[in-house]
UniProtKB/TrEMBL annotation:
CDD domains documented for this protein: ASCH_Ef3133_like (cd06553)
ASCH domain: residues covered: 26-149
PANTHER family named among the record's database cross-references: CYTOPLASMIC PROTEIN, CYTOPLASMIC PROTEIN-RELATED
Signal sequence range: none
Organism: Maricaulis maris (strain MCS10)
UniProt name for this protein: ASCH domain-containing protein
C-alpha cells in the first residue's frame, strides 16, 4: 500500500477497532475512468456486487474473496475511497448470471441484457490482451459486498 492508502486504512482501524490488514486493495475496472465510474456507484450504495473472470484468481492475479473479507477500494488515481466487506461469493458459468445479480451490480440500466453486453465486451478485451479465447461458458467469481466505511 502507498503511504496514503496505509493512512486511510489506519484511520479505519482506529475508528472501528479492526486490527488486521485488508485482504485486498484494488480499483474496479481496467482504466482510471472506469474505476471512477464504478466507484461512484459503490459510494451511492447502488453497486453491491462485482464479477471477475475465474482465470484471474486461478493464475494468482487476484485473491479469491471470501465472506467477511475487507478490501480497500481505490479511485482511478490509486487514492483510497472506501472499504467494503464481502458478504457472499459464488462461482458459475458467466452464461448463468441472473437478473438479480445484474441488478446488484448496479451498472447501466441494471438489466441482465445490459450486464451481459458490458461484461462480454470487457472480458473479450481482457482476453485479447492476455492471449486467450473468451466465451460465456467460462466461470466467473460473483462477489457481493457491502460498503462499510465511510
Amino acid at each position: 500500500m502507498t503511504p496514503e492508502q496505509s493512512s486511510y486504512w489506519q484511520a479505519f482501524c482506529e475508528a472501528t477497532g479492526h486490527d488486521r490488514p485488508p485482504e485486498d486493495v484494488f480499483a474496479f475496472g481496467d482504466s482510471p475512468g472506469l474505476a471512477d465510474e464504478l466507484l461512484a456507484l459503490v459510494l451511492a450504495d447502488r453497486k453491491k456486487a462485482t464479477a471477475s473472470h475465474s482465470r484471474w484468481h486461478e493464475l494468482g492475479e487476484e485473491p479469491l474473496p471470501r465472506p467477511g473479507d475487507l478490501a480497500l477500494v481505490l479511485d482511478g488515481r490509486g487514492k483510497p475511497a472506501c472499504i467494503i466487506r464481502t458478504s457472499r461469493v459464488d462461482r458459475h458459468p458467466i452464461k448463468d448470471t441472473t437478473e438479480e445479480f445484474a441488478w446488484a451490480e448496479g451498472e447501466g440500466d441494471r438489466s441482465l441484457s445490459w450486464w451481459m453486453d458490458a461484461h462480454i465486451t470487457y472480458w473479450t478485451r481482457e482476453a485479447a490482451r492476455e492471449g486467450y479465447a473468451f466465451n460465456t461458458g467460462q466461470d466467473a467469481i460473483f462477489h457481493r459486498f457491502d460498503r462499510i466505511w465511510p
